């Protein structure tokens, strides 16, 4: 594992969050629309690079795209998990930032074997500090902590998860 991988993954999560957040304002009905939104999202890390087809391909098939595609494709399952642990809060009443962060973290916890659940939670809290309201951090942590405990206890399984 290269030394840059954690930093690269954090940047990828940030990009995925921004794309997924933007999709809440202009919902995409097809994966092609999601792909277009993903590719059109400005990336501050390569603002001064001349973007060529190869760079766009790397973006498309990298970790950030895997997160965007995974969250978008599994949003109903993710929302049902979030609602289960967000005591007295319906998903449609949650703030868009918080909901996006929760979807991203729950996706990583449930669908990404290469991401330890504690890392998914920590990364969501880091993104919350960067993009969210100060009060949201404990709310997000509470929901994700309850979800991880249920997962560890075997009472949280993924409906409709395809075995890879």
UniProtKB/TrEMBL annotation:
NCBIfam families: nusB. The gene is nusB. Involved in transcription antitermination. Required for transcription of ribosomal RNA (rRNA) genes. Binds specifically to the boxA antiterminator sequence of the ribosomal RNA (rrn) operons. Residues 11-148 form the NusB/RsmB/TIM44 domain. GO terms for biological process: DNA-templated transcription termination; transcription antitermination. One of its GO terms (cellular component) is cytosol. GO terms for molecular function: RNA binding. This is Transcription antitermination protein NusB. HAMAP family: NusB. It comes from Bilophila wadsworthia (strain 3_1_6).
